[in-house]
């Protein structure tokens, strides 16, 4: 059975109409896939920024275990086993197609994949588009690759164009037809870019696969804040940036909607278990009989000019708890608590309410038990400014 793992960068939980029926511009092709698959309406990412979240999905590990906890100057730990490597041991061929610069090689993810298609500076495709690093169209290479051989495949497809700044790449007809002027200027083409994926990319992708022999995951790495709590994404742990859409199409499973909270680290281990490729990774088994462990998330992401602030949190049932601090155990403090069923927009922080403090004690204990691990932290991005700047240059930012 092939596994096709598609991530739509920045697709927040309400970006597809199968998750958000009130959405003005329907995502018809995504919805068609959803009708055949399992929809998870409460899936949360482990981090609100690209590399950390993706690596969690491919290792089944939270960021404090895989090591990529900031945006620049870090690499995935070398001593951890990744799930694509386990697939390789079971005779799978693995490939990655990323639209985001040298995402795979920069963070040390190469060993996961037999073949990597990325736009490293100087290589084919680099600066092919008007904005350099902001998105690469890998469709042609993907099509050729899928014709290439008969081995079972694990293929990661990373659509980067929903990200801020990639507007110049989308066909003008989408910008005309789907622009949303009610959004801040940076994000007015967001749904146009989701529409481009839905109308052109997804049908193209599906044409290349045999649906009777392919498991298809359609999800995201994080959401997008649109300027409500922060400028874009990466600093906060609100659901606008942490909660992501998740559809799993599996030829052996019926359509279903699951509203239990899950973590994105459980997606791939669960699929591998369904194929009798049990992993050593602790997971919830979301495709099978499951228990719901709290979903953990963290961020140490900073803007270039700002000092980093660490945040970590957990979702369990109807509660979300967030701690804030500089990273040292004694400095972390319980900062935010939200009752997600009654306060979906996370506007009412209940952290000062004694009854709520009491009700959420088990989650506080669960998250505090991770603090020892959390304190093995990496602050390279502030320690070595030169390296940081070089990293930005390598990624094409400067
Ligand atoms: Zn991203």
Tell me what you see in this structure:
The chain has helices at residues 28-36, 50-59, 63-66, 83-89, 103-106, 139-148, 172-178, 190-207, 239-242, 267-274, 354-359, 361-368, 371-374, 380-383, 385-394, and strands spanning 2-8, 38-44, 93-98, 115-117, 153-159, 214-219, 243-249, 256-258, 262-263, 295-299, 310-316, 319-325, 333-339. It is an alpha/beta fold and 398 residues long. Strands 1, 2, 3, 4, 5, 6, 7, 8 and 9 form a 9-stranded mixed sheet that branches. The protein has a 4-stranded antiparallel sheet with strand order 10-11-12-13, with helices on one face. The termini are far apart. The structure holds zinc ion.
Residue ranges: pLDDT <50 for 5 or more in a row?
377-382
Heteromolecules bound: zinc ion
Count of DSSP H/I helices: 15
CATH class category name of the largest domain: Alpha Beta
**What is the helix fraction of residues, given as a range?**
25-40%
Structural class: alpha/beta
Q: Strand share of the residues?
A: 15-25%
The total count of strands amounts to 13
Summarize the main sheet. 9 strands, mixed
Distance between the termini: 42 Å
Let me know the CATH homologous superfamily of the largest domain: Alkaline Phosphatase, subunit A
Shape descriptor: globular
Q: Whole-number average pLDDT?
A: 87
Q: Quote the CATH topology of the largest domain.
A: Alkaline Phosphatase, subunit A
Number of domains in the coordinates? 2
Q: Do you know the CATH architecture of the largest domain?
A: 3-Layer(aba) Sandwich
The string of secondary-structure elements, in order, is EHEHHHEHEHEHHEHEEEHEEEEHHHHH
Whole-number radius of gyration?
20 Å
